[in-house]
Amino acid sequence: MTSTPSEGLHPSQLAAFHRDGYLIIPDALPPSTVTALLAETDRLLDTLDLSTHPLTRFLTGGEDGTDHVGDAYFLTSGNKIRFFLEDDAFDAAGNLTKPKHRAVNKIGHYLHALSPPFAALLSTTPSDSRGYVPDMKARPAAVARSLGFTAPRVLQSMVICKQPEIGGAVPPHQDSTFLYTDPPSAVGFWYALEDATLENGCLSFLPGSHRWAAVDKRLVRKGDGEVGTEVVVNEGARFPRGEGYGEEVKGGEYVPREVKAGSLVLIHGNLLHKSERNLSQKGRIIYTFHIIEGGEGFEYDERNWLQPPEEGFTALY
User: Fold this and answer.
1) Where are the alpha helices (DSSP H) in the chain?
2) How far is residue 265's CA from residue 315's CA, in Å, rounded to a whole number?
3) Keyword Membrane: yes or no (predicted)?
4) Looking at the 3D structure of the chain, how many domains does it have?
5) Residue 41 belongs to domain with CATH number
6) What integer pLDDT is reported at residue 100 of this predicted model?
7) Model's pTM, two decimal places?
């Protein structure tokens, strides 16, 4: 199906994305859709049964970047909807101290296929079987075409709840570390479902770092039948194809970017970005998914923590 050019990126937006490594598109989702996605998030949280849950905590690397979640519940979530809890929702004895709606860090990783309201964001026309969102700006398929994707595949969709008082910090990282293709091709679509502010832990970016920050390390599954993840040296391509990568002088400062609910933030897979803890009384719920290039000449590594479901990753077009 063909998306109209008006739904893609304008030349000025495309130039800004290539320059900075990220792009903020305000009002990408109409308010009615934001409300519907928040209602779906609440419905999903209602289904969580803590009596049968393994109480898997979502860990983002720690101070040395190696302490990542990696149990079987996490590693087999690529074609399911599963819940990962906030580390600070537990006391020192391992008891949960928050109600479930205030304890979940993340819901993932197959929302784009198993949840109709989230799947609808990938629709291209009113006749699309995934549903359709009226008045949606910068539809993912049109954006992917603007960025030059030939066979984009959607993966790792998740709702992230940076919970009031206990929402954990996410250290500086590159998305291609976790969703590696050779050469790198990941792009993140990050939708604010609530206002993201300095107070509740908005994203911060190191502008232009995608041009000089190589994908030096990767988070992969452990080998020899051992369950878990580990950080290894990347032995494949460290930059995407194209000119201008690896030539910039390193440096700069992180820039926090507050965004309103309904905004879309596009994030280059090599871009360094982070978020601070949320110690406020206001939560910060967002929805995100990534696309990778599934066309000829791009290899999705079999050691990546996230492996495709039996039917393969979801084709955007």
Assistant:
1) 11-20, 31-47, 72-75, 111-114, 116-119, 140-146
2) 21
3) no
4) 1
5) 2.60.120.620
6) 95
7) 0.94
